[in-house]
UniProtKB/TrEMBL annotation, chain A:
This is microsomal epoxide hydrolase. It catalyses: 1-(4-methoxyphenyl)-N-methyl-N-[(3-methyloxetan-3-yl)methyl]methanamine + H2O = 2-{[(4-methoxybenzyl)(methyl)amino]methyl}-2-methylpropane-1,3-diol. It comes from Corythaixoides concolor. The gene is Ephx1_1. Its EC number is 3.3.2.9. The active site is at residues 232, 382, 439.
TrEMBL record, chain B:
Belongs to the peptidase S33 family. One of its GO terms (biological process) is arachidonate metabolic process. Its EC number is 3.3.2.9. Its main location: endoplasmic reticulum. Residues 65-174 form the Epoxide hydrolase N-terminal domain. The active site is at residues 244, 394, 451. One of its GO terms (cellular component) is endoplasmic reticulum membrane. It is found in: Endoplasmic reticulum membrane; Microsome membrane. This is Epoxide hydrolase 1. It is an enzyme of class 3 (hydrolase). It holds the Pfam family EHN.
Length: 469, 475
């Protein structure tokens, strides 16, 4: 039938493109996996080594910064949305006007700066650039217990601020109704090029480079063994960290785990997995979240990955206007907080944003991008990681042996079944379907995420699994 | 194949009337077959309403054609200058040239020129040198320029020519080529017996044409509106020229009302049909090009295929992907920051003019264009606040599966001329273009030039248009 021919054509093109993406001609020489201590600062690397000093850091603001912001908000030019378009064409400018009005009149950046400064922050120079991080120790420790170091890495368009709600649940679980069997001291760095971390001045700063910097950071802080947690870019960086320093990473917890190299078995399981789930190791929940695949997989990715495509090819172009217009920046970032929290929010005129988040938190995150002027450098991270294609880099082909825990949130952009994840993460200790929540798990569902991290760490510690590697 | 199954086949269940029914059936088939040889399948014209709210039930649309002049004010210029003064730039990576997009060091030079030397009032006068008009069609104001030849030699017919721009261009792209077409003799062009009167509209949502308020405004709606425009101007038959979106719009126009289109000239061919046959043709073409109808020049421009086509297309189509999915998000900041708008638009004028410009720190822009003319085009988007609506056009046109779109299945039978420029983003060999354009009269490999043909190589393009039109007139 006609539909059948069309479907076959779509699949053949799909198939063809997968092969193109996999066998993309590599433009650079093959990436050696073992990192060198590179230099990301300006100009040539000086002969002296990095000093290992830590500096206290406080977020600051000035009247000038605020009045500049207000001036730009006042002069903002909006374009009327199409009738009945809700969030289908992107951020709805009628709702955006409301956000801007709140931003001008009620949002108090000075107060939010104090909120940001409630946790101790530091900077240290690693491989030529200043790395910013938050370091929170537990307020009290029961007799005989030590705090377990936990590195939490944010993603795009997030920041270290995303963790401000979950940090107390991990450093002081008892006060929040959670078991205090494991207590953490939490380190949340800013990825170089994001927020208050200096942006790399050289090309090719990818997730492996970031992992090597964070590894160095943890060593400098005196941690020989630590846990790592991440989603979005944080997932990739923490995975790399587990690959480059497996003896130091006790456990890896992820709220996102994408499959980078699809092979023939993946394609087969997409075609047949709905009818023979058992054969491919799919559980009922997997089938529910993944099928019908065209709609929930392929079309969803195509509809939602425009930003990744342009950031992976022309970051300086697309970021330019966003670094100059706070309203444009807000529109761009808020769209992700809407759609990636729940795809159904595209059907709402206000994008459903205030159902799950409050405007203060959302705008604080946006302000971090605005005051640090880091939008362009944050986007470059996509190019550095994706420019050679997906699934072509060495680290994407290597597996992870470190004990891994995966929290699979239902509204995450792409669902990865355990059957696929275990091809890469060979030592999955816990894999849970979370009852609710989307991409920004730490900000949206901090209790659920904290509970999953705690039970995962419990398992790893009990079996002393990290020693068995 | 399946679409061609005759639908006039009749059948009856009663055996008694089987034979006469069969005769009728065969006869019917014969008649249908004979008729289908002469009638050409067309796209339905349909109708539309793009103004705000519901279409008014009573009253006829105001069909007057009103003269229009572009204006500016001190306030507008001061606002622009203020924004340019407060622009924030992010330093590029070392050695990045234009590989990460528009280089912000060069951008600062452009902005300095824009702030201190660019004279918008003077450019507005330049824009107003041709007569502008507006008229309301389907609820929205359509802007266009209409240039008649000032002198028509005795006995020469003046051909009406509709030229349609694309994204991120505008009617202004045609300002250099218009005099070559309305007064060829005065510009050293000797294709002598063809003289044109040129109409350049702005696509709704672009420049001074009002943006549609309703969803679904695609190239077919645009085609219909432009037919109505030409009709309103009193033209029954006319030539069409276009590249980028213009190419798609005029193709739809030729599919919709072939009897009104004397000829179709394109400087870009959208190769819409992907599929198994195309893939085989691509794979074989590398080794036995003659077998699949590819010429030497085709091979030079198409291969290495993955490199030149897929890799380049993926590298350069990020904007298309985001505009086809989230135009309101992508355009929001650009409508608020003129510097961001300039970076976004001028990056295309760099890369689509010559792919090697990506290796240059200044993107090679001033080697082919002047900053004054580039910024005039950017200003058109800025003063009309039309960047978001211009981006929405991508979403409206690129449906989930492009091969299922109506126009891909309806061929184009009007005389067609194709000018293939070497630095165009993707090359379309004649044999692939024939899938859609069944009646190619001329196909020229141009010696130089890229995507913005009318802007960059007006003389070459004008010559090819005249060469094509002469051939069509002789038919």
């Amino acid at each position: 039938s006609l539909a059948g021919i069309m479907l076959l054509e779509v699949f053949l093109v799909f198939f063809f493109f997968f092969f193109i993406i996999i066998f993309f001609p590599s433009k650079k020489k093959e990436e050696t996996f073992f990192f060198f201590f590179l230099w990301w600062g300006k100009g040539r690397k000086p002969d002296t080594e990095d000093d290992f000093f830590f500096f206290f850091f406080k977020v600051e603001t000035t009247e000038e910064e605020l009045s500049d912001l207000f001036r730009r908000l006042d002069q903002a030019r909006f374009t009327e949305p199409l009738e009945n378009s809700c969030f289908h064409y992107g951020t709805n400018s009628v709702y955006l006007r409301k956000v801007v009005s709140y931003w001008k009149n009620q949002f108090n950046w000075k107060k939010q700066v104090e909120v940001l400064n409630k946790y101790p922050q530091f900077k240290t120079k690693i491989q030529g650039i200043d790395i910013h991080f938050v370091h929170v120790k537990p307020p009290r420790l029961p007799e005989g217990q030590s705090a377990k170091p936990l590195l939490m890495v944010h993603g795009w368009p997030g920041s270290f601020y995303e963790f401000y709600k979950i940090i107390p649940l991990l450093t002081d679980p008892a006060s929040h109704g959670l078991s205090d069997e494991h207590i953490f001291e939490v380190i949340c760095p800013s990825i170089p090029g994001y927020g208050f971390s200096e942006a790399p001045h050289k090309k090719d700063f990818n997730s492996v480079s970031a992992a090597s910097i964070f590894y160095e950071l943890m060593l400098r802080l005196g941690f020989n063994e630590f846990y790592a947690q991440g989603g979005d870019c944080g997932w990739l960086i923490c995975t790399n960290l587990a690959q480059i320093a497996p003896n130091h990473v006790k456990g890896l917890h992820l709220n996102l785990a994408l499959v980078m190299n699809m092979g023939f078995t993946h394609l087969l399981s997409i075609l047949l997995g709905r009818y023979l789930p058992g054969l491919f190791g799919f559980q009922d929940e997997d089938v529910k979240r993944m099928f019908p695949f065209l709609e929930k997989g392929l079309y969803k990715i195509l509809l939602e990955s425009g930003y990744a495509h342009i950031q992976a090819t022309k970051p300086d172009t697309v970021g330019c206007g966003l670094n100059d217009s706070p309203v444009g920046l807000a529109a761009y970032i808020l769209e992700k907080f809407s759609t990636w929290t729940d795809l159904e929010f595209r059907n709402l005129e206000d994008g459903g944003l205030e159902r799950k988040f409050n405007l203060d938190d959302l705008l604080t995150n946006i302000m971090i991008y605005w005051v640090s002027g880091c939008m362009v450098s944050s986007m470059r991270f996509y190019k550095e990681n994706l420019q050679n294609g997906i699934g072509t880099q060495k680290h994407e082909k290597l597996t992870v042996q470190v004990p891994t825990g995966i929290a699979s949130f239902p509204n995450e952009i792409m669902h990865t079944p355990q059957a696929w994840a275990q091809k890469k993460y060979t030592n999955i200790v816990s894999f849970h379907f979370m009852p609710r929540g989307g991409h920004f798990a730490a900000l949206e569902e901090p209790e659920l995420l904290a509970e999953d991290i705690l039970q995962f760490v419990g398992k790893v510690e009990k079996e002393q699994l990290w020693r068995k590697k | 194949t399946i679409l061609c199954l005759p639908r006039s086949l009749e059948y009856s269940q009663k055996n008694a009337i089987l034979i006469p029914a069969a005769t009728l059936g065969v006869g019917g088939m014969l008649v249908y077959w004979l008729r289908s040889r002469h009638t050409v399948k067309t796209i339905e014209m349909g109708d539309g309403w793009w103004g705000s709210g519901e279409r008014p039930l009573k009253g006829k649309e105001d069909e007057s054609i009103r003269p229009f002049k572009i204006e500016t004010s001190d306030k507008e210029i001061e606002d622009l200058h203020r924004r340019l003064d407060q622009a924030r730039f992010a330093p590029p990576l070392e050695g990045a040239a234009f590989h990460y997009g528009f280089n912000s060091i060069y951008l600062q030079k452009v902005v300095a020129y824009w702030r201190n030397q660019f004279d918008w009032r003077k450019q507005v006068e330049v824009l107003n040198k041709y007569p502008h008009f507006k008229t309301t069609i389907e609820g929205i104001d359509i802007h266009f320029i209409h240039v008649k030849p000032s002198y028509v030699p005795h006995g020469r017919a003046v051909q009406p020519l509709l030229m349609v721009h694309g994204w991120p261009g505008s009617f202004y792209e045609f300002y250099k080529i218009i005099p070559l077409l309305t007064e060829p003799a005065g510009h050293g062009l000797n294709e002598g017996d063809v003289v044109f009167e040129v109409i350049c509209p702005s696509i709704p949502g672009y420049g001074f044409s009002e943006a549609p308020c309703q969803k679904g405004f695609d190239s077919i709606a645009t085609a219909r509106i432009f037919h109505k425009l030409m009709n309103r101007l009193g033209f029954k038959e006319y030539y069409l020229q276009g590249g980028d979106w213009g190419s798609r719009i005029i193709t739809n126009m030729a599919q919709m009302l072939p009897q009104s289109v004397k000829g179709l000239h394109l400087n870009l061919v959208f190769v819409t049909t992907q599929g198994l046959r195309r893939m085989i043709s691509v794979m074989l073409g590398a080794y036995v090009p003659w077998l699949v109808g590819l010429t030497k020049e085709d091979v030079k421009r198409t291969y290495p295929f993955i490199q030149k086509n897929i890799y380049t297309l993926l590298q350069e189509s990020g904007y298309l992907h985001i505009q086809a999915t989230k135009p309101d998000t992508a355009g929001c900041g650009l409508n608020d920051s003129p510097v961001g708008l300039a970076a976004y638009i001028l990056e295309k004028f760099s890369t689509w003019t010559d792919k090697s410009f990506r290796h240059r720190d200044d993107g090679g822009l001033e080697s082919k264009y002047s900053l004054e003319e580039l910024l005039t085009n950017v200003m058109i988007y800025w003063v009309t606040s039309s960047i978001v609506s211009s981006m929405r056009y991508y979403k409206e046109n690129i449906s989930k599966d492009p091969t299922l779109s109506l126009d891909a299945r309806v061929g184009v039978h009007v005389p067609t001329g194709i000018a293939a420029f070497p630095q165009e983003i993707a090359h379309a060999p004649r044999v692939w273009a024939k899938n859609i354009y069944k009646n190619i009269i001329t196909y020229s490999y141009m010696p130089s030039g890229g995507h913005f043909a009318a802007f960059e190589e007006p003389k070459l393009l004008a010559k090819d248009i005249m060469h094509f039109v002469r051939k069509v007139e002789q038919l």
